[in-house]
Amino acid sequence: MSDFVGYGLLPCRVRYCVCMEFLKVAGKTIQRPSFEEEDLSDEVAAFRGDFELEAVRVRQGDQSGVTGEGSISLAFVSDVDLSESRLAPLELSDVRFEEVDLANAVLADVIARRVDFLRCQAIGLRVSLGQASDIYAEDCRFDYATFRIDQVKNAVIFRRCSFREAVFVGDLSNVVFDECEMPQVEFEATRASGCDLTTSRLSDVSGLLTLRGARIEAVQASFLGVQFAKEAGLTIAG
Protein backbone atom coordinates (compact mmCIF):
# COMPACT_ATOMS: atom_id res chain seq x y z
CA MET A 1 0.00 0.00 0.00
CA SER A 2 1.71 3.15 -1.18
CA ASP A 3 1.90 6.54 0.51
CA PHE A 4 2.16 9.91 -1.15
CA VAL A 5 3.45 13.01 0.57
CA GLY A 6 3.16 16.43 -1.03
CA TYR A 7 3.69 19.99 0.05
CA GLY A 8 2.20 23.40 -0.69
CA LEU A 9 1.78 26.80 0.94
CA LEU A 10 -0.98 27.82 3.30
CA PRO A 11 -1.86 31.45 4.02
CA CYS A 12 0.09 33.02 6.88
CA ARG A 13 -1.34 32.23 10.31
CA VAL A 14 -0.27 33.67 13.66
CA ARG A 15 2.46 35.68 11.92
CA TYR A 16 4.17 32.86 10.07
CA CYS A 17 3.61 30.66 7.03
CA VAL A 18 3.23 26.89 7.18
CA CYS A 19 3.28 24.04 4.70
CA MET A 20 0.68 21.47 3.90
CA GLU A 21 1.63 17.81 4.03
CA PHE A 22 -0.56 15.13 2.47
CA LEU A 23 -0.73 11.38 3.03
CA LYS A 24 -2.44 8.89 0.74
CA VAL A 25 -3.54 5.45 1.95
CA ALA A 26 -5.93 3.05 0.21
CA GLY A 27 -6.92 5.70 -2.28
CA LYS A 28 -7.79 8.24 0.43
CA THR A 29 -5.73 11.43 0.77
CA ILE A 30 -5.68 13.40 4.01
CA GLN A 31 -4.00 16.64 5.02
CA ARG A 32 -1.70 16.38 8.03
CA PRO A 33 -1.40 19.04 10.77
CA SER A 34 0.25 22.17 9.36
CA PHE A 35 2.83 23.95 11.50
CA GLU A 36 6.56 24.35 11.93
CA GLU A 37 7.63 23.10 15.35
CA GLU A 38 10.36 25.72 15.75
CA ASP A 39 7.72 28.44 15.50
CA LEU A 40 5.79 27.11 18.50
CA SER A 41 6.20 28.56 21.98
CA ASP A 42 6.70 26.21 24.94
CA GLU A 43 3.70 25.90 27.24
CA VAL A 44 3.12 23.87 30.40
CA ALA A 45 0.43 21.19 30.31
CA ALA A 46 -2.77 22.85 31.54
CA PHE A 47 -6.02 21.19 30.51
CA ARG A 48 -8.04 21.81 33.65
CA GLY A 49 -11.00 24.20 33.38
CA ASP A 50 -11.25 26.50 30.36
CA PHE A 51 -8.24 26.50 28.05
CA GLU A 52 -7.29 27.92 24.67
CA LEU A 53 -3.95 26.74 23.34
CA GLU A 54 -2.64 28.10 20.05
CA ALA A 55 0.78 27.86 18.40
CA VAL A 56 2.26 25.98 21.38
CA ARG A 57 4.44 22.99 22.16
CA VAL A 58 3.44 21.09 25.29
CA ARG A 59 5.98 18.54 26.50
CA GLN A 60 5.36 16.23 29.44
CA GLY A 61 3.05 16.89 32.34
CA ASP A 62 0.64 15.00 34.58
CA GLN A 63 -2.95 15.97 33.76
CA SER A 64 -4.53 12.70 34.77
CA GLY A 65 -8.11 12.98 35.98
CA VAL A 66 -8.58 16.63 34.98
CA THR A 67 -11.87 18.03 33.69
CA GLY A 68 -11.69 20.77 31.11
CA GLU A 69 -13.05 22.31 27.93
CA GLY A 70 -11.62 24.47 25.20
CA SER A 71 -9.65 24.50 21.98
CA ILE A 72 -6.21 23.46 20.77
CA SER A 73 -4.83 24.69 17.45
CA LEU A 74 -1.43 24.67 15.78
CA ALA A 75 -0.02 22.58 18.60
CA PHE A 76 2.34 19.70 19.33
CA VAL A 77 1.45 17.79 22.51
CA SER A 78 3.87 15.04 23.58
CA ASP A 79 4.38 12.73 26.57
CA VAL A 80 1.46 14.18 28.53
CA ASP A 81 -0.60 12.02 30.91
CA LEU A 82 -4.29 12.67 30.23
CA SER A 83 -5.51 9.33 31.55
CA GLU A 84 -8.91 9.39 33.28
CA SER A 85 -9.42 12.97 32.08
CA ARG A 86 -12.65 14.40 30.68
CA LEU A 87 -12.38 17.09 28.01
CA ALA A 88 -15.68 18.37 26.62
CA PRO A 89 -16.50 20.23 24.49
CA LEU A 90 -13.22 20.20 22.60
CA GLU A 91 -12.12 21.72 19.30
CA LEU A 92 -8.91 20.51 17.66
CA SER A 93 -7.30 22.05 14.58
CA ASP A 94 -3.80 21.25 13.30
CA VAL A 95 -2.75 19.27 16.37
CA ARG A 96 -0.26 16.45 16.79
CA PHE A 97 -0.49 14.20 19.86
CA GLU A 98 2.60 12.02 20.31
CA GLU A 99 3.05 9.37 23.02
CA VAL A 100 0.16 10.85 25.00
CA ASP A 101 -1.60 8.70 27.61
CA LEU A 102 -5.36 8.78 27.00
CA ALA A 103 -6.24 5.62 28.89
CA ASN A 104 -9.85 5.70 30.14
CA ALA A 105 -10.16 9.34 29.08
CA VAL A 106 -13.40 10.86 27.78
CA LEU A 107 -13.28 13.26 24.82
CA ALA A 108 -16.82 14.42 24.08
CA ASP A 109 -18.43 16.92 21.72
CA VAL A 110 -15.23 16.99 19.68
CA ILE A 111 -14.71 18.82 16.39
CA ALA A 112 -11.40 17.66 14.92
CA ARG A 113 -9.65 18.90 11.79
CA ARG A 114 -6.16 17.78 10.75
CA VAL A 115 -5.21 15.88 13.90
CA ASP A 116 -2.51 13.22 14.38
CA PHE A 117 -2.32 10.62 17.14
CA LEU A 118 1.12 8.95 17.12
CA ARG A 119 2.11 6.09 19.46
CA CYS A 120 -0.56 7.02 21.98
CA GLN A 121 -1.86 4.74 24.74
CA ALA A 122 -5.64 5.02 24.65
CA ILE A 123 -6.96 1.83 26.22
CA GLY A 124 -10.57 2.38 27.31
CA LEU A 125 -10.79 5.79 25.63
CA ARG A 126 -14.30 7.07 24.94
CA VAL A 127 -14.49 9.65 22.20
CA SER A 128 -17.49 11.33 20.60
CA LEU A 129 -16.72 13.19 17.38
CA GLY A 130 -19.28 15.60 16.03
CA GLN A 131 -17.06 16.03 12.97
CA ALA A 132 -13.85 14.24 12.02
CA SER A 133 -11.82 15.66 9.13
CA ASP A 134 -8.32 14.50 8.13
CA ILE A 135 -7.59 12.39 11.21
CA TYR A 136 -4.54 10.12 11.30
CA ALA A 137 -3.59 7.63 14.02
CA GLU A 138 -0.48 5.44 13.88
CA ASP A 139 0.80 2.74 16.25
CA CYS A 140 -1.79 3.53 18.91
CA ARG A 141 -3.52 1.17 21.36
CA PHE A 142 -7.29 1.69 21.29
CA ASP A 143 -8.21 -1.60 22.99
CA TYR A 144 -11.65 -1.48 24.69
CA ALA A 145 -12.20 2.04 23.32
CA THR A 146 -15.52 3.44 22.07
CA PHE A 147 -15.70 5.71 19.03
CA ARG A 148 -18.88 7.60 18.19
CA ILE A 149 -18.63 9.58 14.96
CA ASP A 150 -21.44 11.78 13.69
CA GLN A 151 -19.77 12.88 10.46
CA VAL A 152 -16.59 12.08 8.56
CA LYS A 153 -15.38 14.78 6.18
CA ASN A 154 -12.68 13.75 3.71
CA ALA A 155 -11.14 10.74 5.51
CA VAL A 156 -9.92 9.16 8.75
CA ILE A 157 -6.94 6.77 8.70
CA PHE A 158 -5.88 4.31 11.40
CA ARG A 159 -2.51 2.63 10.72
CA ARG A 160 -1.07 -0.29 12.70
CA CYS A 161 -3.41 0.34 15.61
CA SER A 162 -4.83 -2.18 18.07
CA PHE A 163 -8.61 -2.26 18.63
CA ARG A 164 -9.29 -5.30 20.80
CA GLU A 165 -13.00 -5.28 21.80
CA ALA A 166 -13.39 -1.69 20.63
CA VAL A 167 -16.78 -0.31 19.56
CA PHE A 168 -17.43 1.89 16.51
CA VAL A 169 -20.75 3.71 16.28
CA GLY A 170 -22.00 6.09 13.60
CA ASP A 171 -20.40 7.33 10.39
CA LEU A 172 -17.55 5.08 9.20
CA SER A 173 -17.59 6.31 5.62
CA ASN A 174 -14.07 6.90 4.27
CA VAL A 175 -12.48 5.43 7.39
CA VAL A 176 -9.38 3.35 6.58
CA PHE A 177 -8.09 0.63 8.90
CA ASP A 178 -4.58 -0.07 7.57
CA GLU A 179 -2.79 -3.12 9.02
CA CYS A 180 -4.77 -2.89 12.26
CA GLU A 181 -5.48 -5.65 14.79
CA MET A 182 -9.25 -5.85 15.31
CA PRO A 183 -10.26 -8.87 17.41
CA GLN A 184 -13.83 -8.84 18.77
CA VAL A 185 -14.57 -5.37 17.46
CA GLU A 186 -18.24 -4.31 17.44
CA PHE A 187 -19.60 -2.18 14.59
CA GLU A 188 -22.82 -0.14 14.70
CA ALA A 189 -22.33 1.89 11.55
CA THR A 190 -24.92 4.27 10.15
CA ARG A 191 -22.81 4.79 7.01
CA ALA A 192 -19.80 2.84 5.76
CA SER A 193 -19.36 3.71 2.10
CA GLY A 194 -15.64 3.90 1.36
CA CYS A 195 -14.63 2.25 4.63
CA ASP A 196 -11.56 0.08 3.95
CA LEU A 197 -10.66 -2.97 6.04
CA THR A 198 -8.71 -4.91 3.42
CA THR A 199 -5.34 -5.04 5.20
CA SER A 200 -6.54 -5.47 8.78
CA ARG A 201 -6.96 -8.64 10.82
CA LEU A 202 -10.60 -9.23 11.74
CA SER A 203 -11.66 -11.98 14.12
CA ASP A 204 -14.88 -12.58 16.06
CA VAL A 205 -16.19 -9.17 15.02
CA SER A 206 -19.88 -8.26 15.21
CA GLY A 207 -22.13 -5.82 13.39
CA LEU A 208 -20.82 -6.75 9.95
CA LEU A 209 -24.24 -6.22 8.37
CA THR A 210 -24.07 -2.52 9.29
CA LEU A 211 -20.95 -2.08 7.13
CA ARG A 212 -22.79 -1.76 3.84
CA GLY A 213 -20.40 -0.25 1.27
CA ALA A 214 -17.20 -1.16 3.15
CA ARG A 215 -14.33 -3.01 1.41
CA ILE A 216 -12.81 -6.31 2.50
CA GLU A 217 -10.66 -8.84 0.65
CA ALA A 218 -11.85 -12.21 -0.67
CA VAL A 219 -9.86 -14.07 1.97
CA GLN A 220 -11.46 -11.98 4.70
CA ALA A 221 -14.92 -12.61 3.23
CA SER A 222 -14.32 -16.34 3.32
CA PHE A 223 -13.05 -16.21 6.88
CA LEU A 224 -15.97 -14.05 8.03
CA GLY A 225 -18.62 -16.00 6.14
CA VAL A 226 -19.88 -17.85 9.22
CA GLN A 227 -20.24 -14.60 11.14
CA PHE A 228 -22.17 -13.00 8.26
CA ALA A 229 -24.49 -16.01 8.19
CA LYS A 230 -25.11 -15.87 11.94
CA GLU A 231 -25.92 -12.14 11.82
CA ALA A 232 -28.31 -12.78 8.94
CA GLY A 233 -30.18 -15.19 11.17
CA LEU A 234 -29.17 -18.33 9.32
CA THR A 235 -28.71 -21.66 11.11
CA ILE A 236 -25.48 -23.41 10.25
CA ALA A 237 -25.84 -27.21 10.21
CA GLY A 238 -23.09 -29.66 11.01
**Proportion of helical residues:** under 10%
Shape: elongated
In angstroms, what is the radius of gyration?
18 Å
Based on helices, strands and strand pairing, what is the structural class? mainly beta
How many DSSP-defined strands?
16
Rounded mean pLDDT is 90
What's a concise summary of this model?
This protein has 238 residues and is mainly beta. Helix content is 5%, strand content 50%. It has helices spanning 218-223, 225-231, and strands at 7-9, 19-25, 28-31, 41-43, 49-62, 67-81, 86-98, 106-118, 126-138, 146-149, 152-159, 167-171, 175-178, 181-183, 186-191, 201-203.
Explain how this protein is built.
Helices cover 5% and strands 50% of the residues. The protein is mainly beta and 238 residues long. The strands form 3 sheets. Strands 4, 5, 6, 7, 8, 9, 10, 11, 12, 13 and 15 form an 11-stranded parallel sheet that branches. The N and C termini lie far apart (39 Å).
Name a few traits of the molecule.
single chain; 238 residues; mainly beta; 3-stranded antiparallel sheet; 2 helices; elongated
